[in-house]
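INFO  loader      accepted 1 record
INFO  loader      residues=428
INFO  predictor   begin
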Amino acid sequence: MNVRPDGLLGATLAVESLGAFDTLINGAGGCRSRMQIILRDLDPEYRGEDEGCCRSRYFSRQSRLPCTHINGDDIVFGTGPKVADAVKSMADNGKGTVMVETLSASLVCSDYSRDIPPEMMPVLLTGDLSSMSFEDGFDLATREAIASLGIECTERDPVGVNILGYGIPDLGWNYGMEEFRRLLEPMGVHILSFVSCIPGKDALMGSGNASLNVLVRPSVCTSTAEWYSERCGIPYLVPSEGAPVGYSATRAFVREVAEALGLDPRPSLEHIDREEAAVRRMLLNFNRGVDMLRARRFSAEGDSSVLLPLVRWMYEKFMMVPASVVPTDSSRSGELESYLERIGFGGSFGASCDKEVEVDFTDGVTAKAMELAGDACAHIGIGMPYALNVNLIGRCLVGCGGCRFILDSVLNGSERFICGQPSMADMR
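INFO  predictor   done
INFO  writer      dumping tokens
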């Protein structure tokens, strides 16, 4: 049984992450409600009931995710007329329309060309999205939606980049964008578009002028990056150490982007050095807590591009033991497995965690459930759904801010008692 997010959810979030389309859900209202709850949690500026939404009854007084609310009659007689009515009612919204079909709607196999005029035809994602992984659905929808915009390269920016594979499914993505700017702008990089961080149509149209696409998590954007390469001639970079999670991977990320664009990375590396030095000074005062992590076990489940640098950081800097490492995609899984084998913990790859751990990196709901159950270890939500009421303090995983969040969660998340006696104290 698959209990992970599926391709239907991935496709819906992908379209919403662009900020240039209305996402029409062709399905029952319950399917829409499920996705709307998750979308509202991921977008801190989601607007709920809005009088302007009454321009189309298919919005049901919400600002996002119009839905056809198909019923038994539609299953028998076809969904074409209802879909056509929904599309026509949204024609003057100033956005394009992308339609995603739920499993029940896809079984009807309606021919929408009979009911929808060609000039109003939405981008159709009519495959069996429910059978796809979240990552494949996200990548497919992003590529198809962007391709429909007719993006061209009109004036190449020699230091312009697009950030792909980072978006609203990522923890604190709105704060993460600022982290990317702090990493790249000091060395002269122009970030033209965070493609999946609700950039809007204008930013997406300008994304064709980039000289480089940087793939933070290739699992959700490789096909999209290939489209940019084919259509606009933009090469793409997959950071060798994974996403910029932890100081080592963050430095590698900066150096590799600078090398690809012919820039000097020193201003950005100096920023990282200053940040790490400031954090290290605080950790030295907390040395008993840091030392107590040595040889303690940790588990991690999530995107392989995040786990690759995270596992290395926990093992190499804090000498923690990887007890269970479970990637949820295959894009960097081979590298992750090879690394674990090289350090002598190959058996932890894909293994279930059946013993007590000191730190558990998992999805937010699991982390919250274990915390409420009274588990004493540090449970840290690094994957959706995040189970946060609101994120006001900049929680994210990437860049120097991400390093602070992860370290803070690791060292403050455990319920164990630590004596505050300074080390090397004169006990006379």
